[in-house]
Amino acid sequence: MPYSVAVIRIGHNLFDGFEKMTRFGYACINLSLAAIHGKSAPTTNRSMIKKTFEQKGISYASKLSLENSKDLFTILKWNVENEIFFFRLTSNLFPWASEYQISSMPDYEEIRSVLSECGNYARENGIRITSHPGPFNKLCSPNESVVLNTIKDLEMHGEIFDMIGLPQNHWSKINIHVGAAYDSKVDAAATFRRNFARLSPSVSGRLTLENDDKGSLFSTKDLYEMIYSEVGIPIVHDQHHHGFCDGGLTQYEAMKLAFSTWPKGITPVMHYSESKSDEAKDNKIKPQAHSDYVVNKIETHEFDVDVMIEAKAKDLALLNYLSIYKLPSTNL
DNA sequence: ATAGGTCAAGCGAGG
DNA sequence: CCTCGCTTGACCTAT
User: Fold this and answer.
1) Percent of chain A topping pLDDT 70
2) What 3-state DSSP class applies to A99?
3) Residue nearest to nucleotide C5 (CA to C1')
4) Which residues contact A194 (CB under 8 A, 6 or more apart)?
């Protein structure tokens, strides 16, 4: 096995025994480093608009990709220094990657080498790296061109994870939503399952599904009954979304169901966020919108689960949360 | 140098 | 019909 999750966990367990474990994580952007470095802060999100891509093409995309990759290493180091072992990788590491072969970038070899170092570092330090491709990924679409674009985007994520050297399993999950119903959840789920079979092992082995945040779409219960039970895709339970689409289950029931879908030896993931409208005391803001910070105690019950905090203030929100409750970022 | 407008992709909800 | 919200603000141009 090129990347042994078991070894990492046993290693950390030497310190703490075999108590319940939780890693807290943040998504994509590091605002602590931004606060220190200002405009020149490390970022994995350099991008460009379409017009610029048309003018400058793959060579400029390659340049940005290399810089993004180098800064990924800096951010991973920051994570270790701050004892954060769960991190969502940006989907924008390689700008416009759907428009070219990654391997034909001029800086491909150097990028591969930098990403491979990132992977080694993450493995040595037990950082869990995951991703969350955008909402335009619709594997359930009746429109073939939408499906083809989705497959392309997902395969791009898989290829990048392979370059980093992440295992082709749900430890390094690529997480999406079903995200649409087209007036028939039954049909949408069938289309999803059919198109799931078209993915390479690099993607299908890592893919997870998250419950939607609209009543008409897929609750955790729906995902279990209509997708997991047929094709075995593990479920990421988002507590905030559950408030808008609960399928008749309590948080606890939905968590129990979702976590039961994960393979043995791989810690399930839960998403946590709070409403911006509550935080700002402004009911004109949609309740689905994420707050800057999270302040309520996160309930994990008896479950062994990693918690991704989705808050606009990113790592600042995570560090703030941990300080409120005097928690370690992990008790691994 | 900074502010403000703009920007690939798909959906559904709400005004 | 338009805007927002979601993965994740960042880029570009005019001042």
Assistant:
1) 93
2) helix
3) A289
4) none
Hits for CB < 7 Å against strand B across A residues 168-187: 179-183
| Closest of A276, A274, A332, A273 to residue A308, by C-alpha | A273
CA atoms of A225 and A83, how far apart (whole Å): 37
User: Integer distance in angstroms from CA A216 to C1' B14?
Assistant: 14
Angle at A151 between CA A89 and CA A170, to 5 degrees: 45
Nucleotide nearest residue A91, measured CA to C1': C7
Q: Which residue is nearest to nucleotide B10 (CA to C1')?
A: A136
Positions 107-166 of A with beta carbon below 7 A from strand C are 131-135
Write out the two tokens for A218: 């897929």
For A32-82, write each residue's pLDDT tens digit: 998 888 888 899 999 988 888 988 899 999 999 999 999 999 999 999 999
pLDDT digits (tens, 9 = 90+) for A258-291: 999 999 999 999 999 998 888 888 877 888 888 8
Residue with tokens 């379409």: A50
Q: At what angle do helices A185-196 and A144-164 cross, to 10 degrees?
A: 50
Tell me: pLDDT of A152 over 80: yes
A190-to-A152, A195, A226 alpha-carbon distances in Å: 20, 9, 8
What sign results for the dihedral spanned by CA atoms A206, A212, A217, A218? positive
CA–CA distance, A110 with A108 (Å, rounded to integer)? 6
Rounded Cα distance between A302 and A213, Å, is 25
Residue A174 backbone dihedrals phi, psi, to 5 degrees: -110, 110
Q: Are A140 and A101 in contact (CB under 8 A)?
A: no
Rounded Cα–Cα distance for residues A87 and A303 (Å):
20
Q: Could you tell me if A305 and A268 are in contact, meaning their C-beta atoms sit under 8 angstroms apart?
A: yes
